[in-house]
Amino acid sequence: AQNADQNADQNGAQNADQNAAQITARGALPLFLATSGQERTHLIKTLRSRKVIYLISQSGLQPEGERVRSLINMRTDLDGLLQGQALPAEQLAMLREICQHYAACEHAFSVSVTSSQDLLRELFTVKGAGTLLRRGTEVRRLHSYQDLDRGELAKLLHSAFGNPPSPDLYQRELLGIYLAADYQGVAVLEASSLAPYLSKFAVDLRAQGEGVGGDLWRAMCEDHSRFFWRSRPDNLISPWYAAQCDGLFRTADWTIYWRGLAATDIDAAVHLALSAPVDFAKAEPSP
Predict the structure, then answer these.
(1) Side-chain-facing half-sphere of 253: CA atoms under 13 Å
(2) Share of the chain above pLDDT 70, in %
(3) Contact assessment for residue 258 and residue 228, using Cβ atoms and an 8 Å cutoff
(4) pTM of the prediction?
(5) Dihedral sign (CA 170, 172, 174, 179)
(6) Percent of the chain residues past pLDDT 90, beyond the cut
(7) Count of Cβ atoms closer than 10 Å to residue 44 Cβ
(8) How confident is the model at residue 144 (pLDDT cuts 50, 70, 90)?
(9) Sign, CA torsion 148/154/160/161
(10) In this model, does residue 287 exceed pLDDT 50?
(11) Is 52 exposed, middle or buried (0-12, 13-18, 19+ CB in 10 A)?
(12) Contact at 8 Å (CB) between 245 and 259?
């Protein structure tokens, strides 16, 4: 019976893909009708949809007494939203249906809830509109570079920073590595004489904008209330770093950030960060 179900799903997916391909080849858009949550789940699974949009009368899911939630992490935010009167009844039913989609489908996809008035902003702007619901990222806590694939880590760091990591990176004393599933992102904490030093925080270019960085950051902060780090002034996520830190210090070459440090520790943190080794080898010239 299980094999029959799997074969039926595969045949359904092939037929749907073929029909959709034939329709789009004629310059039209395929339209599938799914009137129940179960049918919508089956359609998402069969078509392996990458983005699902629910249109409602307002600009997203809005718990009582709050603004519209811009992001819901299905791993960390569900308990509070599914209990009590956090959401209006219709939105709660929709959230439960979305949970069924994620439970039934293994492929990566996102769900957005927005209004018809905000649909164009959701589709054609980076920031989007309404509520984005993500499955959430599984974060592994490791203690040694021996516990991961260095080749995959090197590709991730190269993707995020544009240069391969220096071999010296793997010789330093570690406090912990926080690794997102499928090497989508990583945070590396090294030991120092003052507090943990965040040596690397990287998200693969293909995963940026999907909330991987936020999931990594939350996992790291659960374990460490005090740490410091540095970043180049032209780093595109400098504004995000500034929002996460308790304070910062700028030089011509680096911006040093910290969390949880006493005022008397700041000078030492700046000195340690500025004297930290460079983590990347110079890129080889193109032939």
Answers:
(1) 6
(2) 88
(3) yes
(4) 0.69
(5) negative
(6) 50
(7) 21
(8) very high
(9) positive
(10) no
(11) middle
(12) yes
